[in-house]
Design brief:
The structure holds 2 protein chains of 2 kinds.
Chain A lengths: L17 H5 L7 H36 L2 H6 L16 H32 L2 H16 L2 H20 L9 H25 L3 H9 L4 H12 L1 H17 L2 H6 L17 H10 L7 H33 L2
Chain B lengths: L1 H18 L5 H32 L5 H5 L13 H32 L5 H13 L4 H15 L6 H25 L3 H9 L4 H29 L3 H4 L21 H9 L4 H32 L4
């Protein structure tokens, strides 16, 4: 901390009039600095524009050769079978849907349970020791989760312990681990929402004779519901966009996934696989990547906007 | 008498409710369910760590740090290029993202008039950017590199991709740190005649440094574990030389782990888990640093 007198203003001189102080913001170079930091903030808009352009140009190139209808409704995704290429994105979408659905099936109950416990039941000291565990879970790199899904969840947990008929790749194994990865997203945001519910509401409920469970379920939960929904929607968006887990554990064969025990490829998994293979800019294979990327971006953009709307609503509530 | 009747009746109600108090069977079942929800996360964390360490610890030897990756002799493959590559890329990321993020945060928190449409646009845009999938940032950087004629698989391209990825996180963290600095400090500085920018530079920012440092280190630790955007930049997993500059080719630990784990050889999976231990150790060091800074230097106003 620098001292207060370090300010370069007219400290020694007798105090200038207030009007002078407020008008003083034009020391040499300050205008330039202001423009620079405003530009830094504006840069983030440029990033979004850049994303849209970077995805759009190759995607347009792609849709010149493949019709949008075929892309959105086709059920065969075989861009690399020379002679019988087919560009229906639905197989990738089913892969993404299964892993995301299984992920939410894990993350929503376990995340909400943890959030309710931390917000409504835990002693402040207990909360202080348990919350970091969720933070550690959130801090583990997704490639580590992917390794875990590939070397433990699929062969040991699903195959040996639960006797399920899964191969080394399945949307089930990927989805389960994906769910664990997004538990902290659900838990921490929901906990924030429930902690933001005024204490007076709980006291009112207790005074009417309700116990803690009833108060939680009938008073706190409804009051925090838009924040909780926002946390789930955000988790949904993260599940759709997650790459490394599904690239390692879901499989590399794009096909219509009918059961979670099957292997399948997701949208992000396809992007990762194609990108690591040989794909030179300007080829249809390269443009394919960006068409899928654009679909992914639009999907998560819509979901994010819903989430932002929901968060705004719960912030305004109190 | 009617009045006595209503009195006793109302007196009975709280008693009835008490029978369904916090000790009732459903209440206890509910609490147990909550406990299990939290215990599940802890259990998974423990199993995950045990699984990685059991596989990887025997392989955590000198070869891992001094040798390069090899498919021909997987039993002595090392992560040397990946460790050095991670350090290179994360340094570039920090150099690019921290000044840019801090400047943007200062503008948004200290100067921006939130009634203006362009400032609101930046706000919404930041919220949205924070939710864009990591892999999209790789596609953006690949497209950018193509447009300006930069080679994709270089340290600088990797640094740009990760910097763009964590920029929203750094901005949000810096803004929170600035917000925690009390108004009185700014007012005191302004009252002494400092200009708003001098106030930010000499009072507000120095006071917020611990918070900014904590948030930034956490953002960088997210970047160091990220692989998806870098896959789009060429994703070379078999680099057998030390990166030696911004235009050098590179691989990082997460990419290397991905490359090893996606191959069927058992030896490569083992070395992948050993590399995971190194990666987790790096993250542990960074997070500890962040927590130490938070606890030791952060002021409670």
């Amino acid at each position: 901390m620098s001292t207060l007198t370090a300010g370069g203003g007219p400290v020694g001189r007798p105090g200038p009039r207030a009007a002078v102080i407020t008008r003083q913001h034009s020391r040499p170079g300050e205008r330039v600095t202001m423009v620079a930091i405003a530009a830094a903030a504006g840069f983030s808009v440029l990033v979004t524009v850049g994303i849209v352009l970077a995805l759009l140009f190759p995607a347009v190139e792609f849709f010149r050769q493949v019709s949008i209808v075929e892309f959105l409704t086709g059920t065969r995704w075989t861009p690399r079978f020379a002679g019988q290429e087919s560009y229906g994105v639905l197989p990738l979408v089913t892969g993404t849907l299964w892993t995301t659905f299984i992920g939410l099936l894990i993350a929503v109950p376990f995340g909400l349970g943890a959030a309710v416990y931390l917000s409504e039941y835990a002693h402040p000291r207990v909360r202080k020791t348990l919350k970091p565990i969720l933070e550690i879970l959130a801090g583990i790199p997704s490639v580590v989760y992917g390794y875990f899904a590939l070397t433990f969840v699929a062969p040991v947990l699903l195959n040996d312990l639960l006797n399920l008929e899964v191969g080394s790749f399945s949307t089930l194994a990927a989805g389960l681990v994906l769910g664990v990865m997004i538990i902290p997203t659900v838990a921490s945001l929901s906990e924030d929402a429930m902690s933001a519910v005024p204490q007076a509401l709980r006291h009112g409920s207790f005074a009417l004779g309700a116990n803690r469970m009833r108060t939680t379920l009938r008073v706190v939960f409804p009051a925090a519901v838009s924040g909780i929904m926002a946390s789930i929607v955000l988790a949904l968006s993260r599940a759709i966009g997650e790459t490394m887990i599904v690239a390692l554990a879901a499989g590399t064969q794009p096909r219509m996934v009918a059961s979670p025990l099957e292997a399948g490829q997701t949208m992000t998994g396809f992007i990762a696989q194609t990108a690591t293979g040989e794909s030179t800019p300007g080829t249809l294979s390269y443009d394919t990547l960006y068409a899928v990327g654009l679909a992914l971006f639009v999907l998560t953009l819509v979901i994010n906007i819903i989430s932002i709307r929901l968060v705004r609503r719960f912030r305004e509530a109190y | 008498m009617a009045s006595v009747g209503t009195l006793t009746r109302t007196a009975v109600r709280p008693l009835k409710a008490e029978r369904h108090g916090n000790g009732s069977a459903t209440s206890i079942a509910f609490l147990v369910a909550l406990w299990l929800a939290l215990a599940f996360s802890v259990l998974v964390l423990v199993v995950l760590l045990v699984d990685s360490f059991r596989d990887g610890l025997p392989r955590l030897d000198g070869d891992l740090f001094t040798r390069y990756s090899s498919t021909v002799r997987p039993e002595t493959a090392g992560a040397r290029a990946a460790i050095l590559g991670s350090i290179w890329v994360i340094t570039v990321t920090a150099v690019l993202a921290i000044p840019l993020g801090a400047a943007a945060a200062v503008y948004l928190e200290e100067f921006a008039d939130s009634a203006r449409w362009y400032n609101r646009l930046v706000e919404v845009n930041l919220q949205n950017l924070a939710g864009v999938p990591a892999i999209i940032y790789g596609m953006l950087t690949a497209g950018f590199a193509l447009a300006v004629g930069l080679r994709r698989g270089t340290v600088i391209a990797g640094g740009i991709a990760l910097a763009l990825l964590i920029l929203p996180v750094i901005i949000i963290a810096t803004r929170e740190a600035l917000r925690a600095v009390p108004m009185e400090i700014r007012q005191g500085s302004l009252a002494l005649g400092a200009t708003p920018l001098q106030t930010v530079w000499r009072q507000t920012l120095p006071a917020a440094v611990p918070g900014i440092a904590t948030g930034t280190i956490l953002a960088l630790s997210r970047a160091i574990g990220e692989a998806a955007p870098l896959l789009l930049l060429g994703g070379a997993t078999f680099i057998t030389y030390d990166p030696d500059g911004l235009m050098s080719g590179f691989t990082t630990l997460p990419i290397q782990i991905f490359g090893w784990a996606s191959r069927p050889q058992a030896e490569l999976r083992t070395v992948a888990s050993a590399a995971i231990i190194i990666l987790l150790a790096m993250l542990l060091v960074m997070n500890t640093l962040a927590i130490v800074i938070r606890n030791r230097y952060q002021k409670r106003w």
